[in-house]
Every structure is written in C-alpha cells, then in structure tokens.
Amino acid sequence: MEFTIVFQSILIITMMIIIGAILARTSPLNNETRTLFINMIVNVAMPCIILSSIFHVDMNEDMFRKIVLVFVLSIIINVVGIAMGWIFANLFQKGSNRTREIALLSGLGNTGFIGIPLCAALLGPEGALYAAIFDAGVDVTIWTVGVVMLQKNRKFALQTLKSMINIPTAAIVIGLFAAFFNMKPPEIIIGLTDRLAALAAPLAMFYIGMMIMGLQRGIVRQSVPQTWVPITVKLILLPIATIFMIHLFNFDAVLIQTVLIQSMMPTITLASILFARYSADEQMGALTTVLSTLLGLITIPFMVYIMSLFIN
C-alpha cells in the first residue's frame, strides 16, 4: 500500500471535517440535523457502499470463506479491545464510575462512518466489502456484549437483536444472497449505488466537524481526564495488538490490510447515542469520539506505516 495514498486520504478527511466545522457556524447541529445526517449516512450512503462493493467483486467459495473470517476476526478484535479498556480503566482510573463506558469506547471503532469509505479509497471494492463485513461484526458486538455491559441488570434480552436488523445489515444480506446466486442488477442500479456510495465520506466527515463545534467547554474540561484511556487503547494499543495477532497467520494481503485499518479507527460515532439509550455518560461518549477522531488523523498514518513494516 502506498503511504502517500494513505496520507492524501487522511488529508482529504481532515479538510472535510474542517468544512463540517465551518458549516456548523451557520447551521448548528441540533436534534433534527443530527437525525438527518445519521439517516442519510446509515440508511442511504453506507448501504450503497456495501452493495456497490459486492457488485464490483467476483464472488466465489473462497471469497465467502474470507468474508466469514473477517466477521469472526472483527468480533475477536472488538472483544479484545473492550477487555483491554476494562483492564486499563481498573488499573489507572480505579475511582472512576465510568469503567463500562471506557471499556466500550476502547474496543468499538468508527468502522462504518470512517472505516468503510477509507478502505474503499485505499483498497478498492474488495477492501470496502471486507470493511463492511468488519463493521457488521462491530454491530453484533455492540448489541450483545455492549448492551449487556450497559444494562444495570446485565442480562441479554432477545429484543436487543431487533436493533441489529437495520438497512446496512440488510444490504449485506441481500447483496451476498444475490452474489451467491450470481444475480447482477441492471447497469442503472449499479451506477446509482456507485454515485450514492460517494456521499458516505463527505457526509460522515461533515457530521463529525459539526459535532466538534457543538461541544461545550465546561463538559470538555470535566470529561477529558477520563478519555485518555479509551483513546490510547483504541488508537495505539489495540492496533498494535492486532498487528501482532494477524502477523501470525498467512491471510490474503487485502484482507489483512482491511482488518488492520479497521482496528485503527477512532471511537465509534454512535457511542453517545448508545450511552444515552442506556442512561450512561453520553457527553463522555461524544467527547471521546471527537478527540479520538482528531488524534486518529495523526495515528492512522503512523499505524499504517508500522503495519507496512510487518506485511512487506
């Protein structure tokens, strides 16, 4: 992988975030605009990235095996990150009552909003497909391990599985089903999904830029001391652990690169929404997301360089 391509992609992402911050000056992020952005990204752009990737990749038995492997690796990496966050929170922030939030913020990455568009830009349709499958593994982790940790009674209810039934997941299932039976849609549909897929990265970065401008200084000062553990684990320790783990296996190069890049992603954007739903600290979730995204613009190229030393 060309390091200059990674740097250029991160630079473009940075510029998009800045544009989002500028937009927030005239149109501040409120509940209505927040819902609109999330709906456009999650329900339109991301499913189209998934479908576009599937339409442009030749499916065979070997490819389906790789897809299953990526899904399993995703869940393993997510759980390892959560465990690392839990351990470090208990070691360095013993008096904190935010251990469960810290653990989840340490393991769950922004593999959808940033990861899928970035892998599509760096690795093409195959990388985008693997990235989408990795993101599906993150969703499974969120609505199983994550929900159990956030609930006070710590019980898993089958109704939480309903939250996993969403449009991106449906796009994966429908796309893979069509690919398995070698069903190709008309060219006009392929062209439409290609164009709508291009909306994912700009919309996601605009949203993050607007989130940055919406943070209150008092909340930032109060919550920053509790964010260094999840940010350190998510951006540095978990990617390094993943590099060493993946290096032990002889996997396909694109698969390895996709899994490693996804492990480097900053904290999940929807953390604040998830925490609000289960009466956790949503402000800490939002702040960690923003800070880790900004720092990720520096750490991702560095981690990609470290990755290249092991792969090449």
From TrEMBL:
What is any one of the record's Gene Ontology cellular component terms? plasma membrane
Keyword entries, A-Z: Cell membrane, Membrane, Transmembrane, Transmembrane helix, Transport
Q: Does the keyword Lipid metabolism apply?
A: no
| This protein's name | AEC family transporter
Q: Which residues cross the membrane?
A: 6-24, 36-55, 67-90, 102-123, 129-151, 163-183, 195-215, 227-249, 255-275, 287-311
What Pfam families does this protein's entry cite? Mem_trans (PF03547)
UniProt-annotated location(s): Cell membrane
Supply the InterPro entries for this chain: Mem_transp_PIN-like (IPR004776), Na+/solute_symporter_sf (IPR038770)
Q: Give the family this protein belongs to, as stated in its UniProt record.
A: Belongs to the auxin efflux carrier (TC 2.A.69) family.
**What does the record list as GO biological process?**
transmembrane transport
Please report the record's description of how this protein sits within the membrane.
Multi-pass membrane protein
